[in-house]
């Protein structure tokens, strides 16, 4: 789907405006906000990705997968784990070279960053390890389930209402009790600030803003391509397994009769197992509802 842009009229070549602009498609929205004094720009991006949050987070923190997926990542010159614990928290120092492209212009840049990964809330924060041509290059990636709770939190993050806080508490209780549904899609949110060591002239600043926005859209396009490949591969494997099972030839003579009896017995056993599992699930659900009601009473 072709991008749809809001704000000021877009340029014909890049479909982006000059100072403050936003670029949207069905599953992604990128916004470059008017920068604070001394900053080139502040970017925000949110995207819908058809992959479970934990799996998507694992892709983003894997050095091997990142080198394979992202075309803007040219090479990793240095990587060192500074700290790590058993909870999935890790701090890494990484020096990497990236590439950029804008119209007929191309180039590369090298930055050394400190990256902090927090598995509990699926966040990846980064900042410059040492300044160079950049005075500040920092931001945070956050991977959440794509659901009403995440979208509501995104809308109400600045001025949450009492109702929103109560809803958040109830959802937290649901998750702690294991009542939350398994999520098949993710909401990816990025907040990023860029400040060069020397303030560029206005004309150059406008071009650099467009380059920064294009970098984000390319990164997300690469990630979306990989997710589509993963989902297509799974779909193909499932279809192949079904076709193979359907194509298996029946046994001959007495073997066929024995196989039929065994199949009938297996079906009876399976139905009995399903009945027992359903009864156990109903009992557990009733117990969970009682525990949830008790927690809600405490919240009040």
Automatic annotation (TrEMBL):
Organism lineage: Eukaryota, Viridiplantae, Chlorophyta, core chlorophytes, Trebouxiophyceae
Bias kind Low complexity: ranges: 232-254, 275-284
Name of the featured protein: Coenzyme Q-binding protein COQ10 START domain-containing protein
SUPFAM superfamilies in alphabetical order: Bet v1-like (SSF55961)
Disordered as annotated region, ranges: 228-286
């Amino acid at each position: 789907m072709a991008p749809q842009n809001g704000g000021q009229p877009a340029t014909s070549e890049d479909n982006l405006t000059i100072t403050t602009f936003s670029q949207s498609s069905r599953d992604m929205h990128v916004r470059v906000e008017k920068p604070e004094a001394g900053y080139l720009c502040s970017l925000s991006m949110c995207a819908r990705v058809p992959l479970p949050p934990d799996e998507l987070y694992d892709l983003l923190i894997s050095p091997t997968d990142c080198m394979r997926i992202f075309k803007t990542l040219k090479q990793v010159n240095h990587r060192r784990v500074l700290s790590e614990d058993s909870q999935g928290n890790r701090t890494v120092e990484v020096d990497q070279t990236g590439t950029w492209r804008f119209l007929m212009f191309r180039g590369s840049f090298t930055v050394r960053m400190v990256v902090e990964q927090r598995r509990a809330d699926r966040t990846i924060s980064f900042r410059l390890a040492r300044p160079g041509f950049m005075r500040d290059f920092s931001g945070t990636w956050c991977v959440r389930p794509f659901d009403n709770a995440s979208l509501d939190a995104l809308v109400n993050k600045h001025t949450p209402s009492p109702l929103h806080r109560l809803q958040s508490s109830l959802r937290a209780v649901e998750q702690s009790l294991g009542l939350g549904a398994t999520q098949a899609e993710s909401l990816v949110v990025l907040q990023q600030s860029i400040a060069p060591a020397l303030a560029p002239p206005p004309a150059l600043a406008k071009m650099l803003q467009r380059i920064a926005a294009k970098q984000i859209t390319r990164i997300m396009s690469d990630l979306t391509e990989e997710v589509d490949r993963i989902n297509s591969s799974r779909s193909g494997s499932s279809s192949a397994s079904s076709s193979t099972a359907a194509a298996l030839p029946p046994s001959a003579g007495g073997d066929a009769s024995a196989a039929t009896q065994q199949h009938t017995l297996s079906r009876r056993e399976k139905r009995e197992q399903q009945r027992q599992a359903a009864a156990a699930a109903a009992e557990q659900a009733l117990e969970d509802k009682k525990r949830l009601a008790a927690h809600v009473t405490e919240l009040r």
